[in-house]
Amino acid sequence: MTQAEIKLCSLLLQEHFGEIVEKIGTYLIRTGTQPLRIIVSDTGLLLDQVKKALCVLIQHNLVTYQLQKRGFVEYEAQCKRVLRILRYPRYIYTAKTLYNDTGELIVEELLLNGKMTMSAVVRKVADRLTETMEDGKTMDYADVSNTFVRLADTHFVQRCPQVPETPEPPEAPPPPAPTLVINEKDMYVVPRLNLVGKGKRRRSCDEEEDGERKAKKQKQDGESSEVPGTLQQRRPRLDGAVNQSGGRAEAGPRALLEFVGKSGDSGGGMYTVNLHKALASLATATLESIVEERFGSRCARIFRLLLRKKHLEQKQVEDFAMIPAKEAKDMLYKMLSENFVSLQVSA
């Protein structure tokens, strides 16, 4: 890898996962495959910190491991997968275009968590969709499950490798690391779930309890002997997601050509990078992600609509976004109060 790519990987890891994970990931990118003992020695971190950082990277498919014949495990960074984080907004846009809000949230949860069981994804997405619906309406687990099946059928998501079901002798010691395998024909097979129910709304008391738990945890972290702020796995700021393997929604050369121009034909022509357009696109994606995380997917839909159309009346917002009048009015007021949108009074 070039030094610029290594630096970019380092920045992405730090932004999404924090300093400890970034240090371990960058070390593996620079040095190649390494065993745990060498990683601890060279980075100067505590053994427990290195183990937790490797767990985070493995969970997100950014590091793989292999059991060597001599009995130790070696870890290897997957640089291309780290760089693929830059494509997440385009993945999300594709998923949303094809499978609406439900597909968008399914793939977003998978990217935020790396790996999840289907039942956990269905419940989480149903709850998030219910939060954005009008009072009295809820999202059925079955509807979310159906969208999940469609995502698997089109290879947006895939099954994770598992430990083979081979009985081990009771006296045999466990291996240093499990060997994960998967049959290619089972990669996109969805398990049959008997999930019956609907999404649930968060109650105000639940939010208060969550706040108390977070405050208590922060206090405990501050009193611990570990370096503060190093073992926190940060929530990636995404606008959606697809499977970690890339899947069919990977952005092709067209995404790069948006920011690269050609001038002249002499000697094959000269290429220039439109930094202004690239930075503007990055800023736009960041703003959309913030709105999504703070107000929900429907507010993000309105925000994207206003970015594209520049100016819209409230009735036009309701029609174009296909959101009920009362709900659209509430969402616009929320974003207006936080200065994400502005109100222009016509003469």
Automatic annotation (TrEMBL):
This is DNA-directed RNA polymerase III subunit RPC3. Residues 7-65 form the RNA polymerase III subunit RPC82-related helix-turn-helix domain. GO terms for cellular component: RNA polymerase III complex. It comes from Bubo bubo (Eurasian eagle-owl). PANTHER family: DNA-DIRECTED RNA POLYMERASE III SUBUNIT RPC3, RNA POLYMERASE III DNA DIRECTED -RELATED. DNA-dependent RNA polymerase catalyzes the transcription of DNA into RNA using the four ribonucleoside triphosphates as substrates. Specific core component of RNA polymerase III which synthesizes small RNAs, such as 5S rRNA and tRNAs. It holds the Pfam family HTH_9. GO terms for molecular function: single-stranded DNA binding. Keywords: DNA-directed RNA polymerase, Nucleus, Transcription. Belongs to the eukaryotic RPC3/POLR3C RNA polymerase subunit family. InterPro entries: POLR3C_WHD (IPR055207), RNA_pol_III_RPC82-rel_HTH (IPR013197), RPC3 (IPR039748), WH-like_DNA-bd_sf (IPR036388). It is found in: Nucleus. Residues 161-184, 199-249 are annotated as: Disordered. Gene3D superfamilies: Winged helix-like DNA-binding domain superfamily/Winged helix DNA-binding domain. Component of the RNA polymerase III (Pol III) complex consisting of 17 subunits. Its main location: nucleus. It comes from the Eukaryota. Residues 164-178 have a biased composition (Pro residues). Residues 287-344 form the DNA-directed RNA polymerase III subunit RPC3 winged-helix domain.
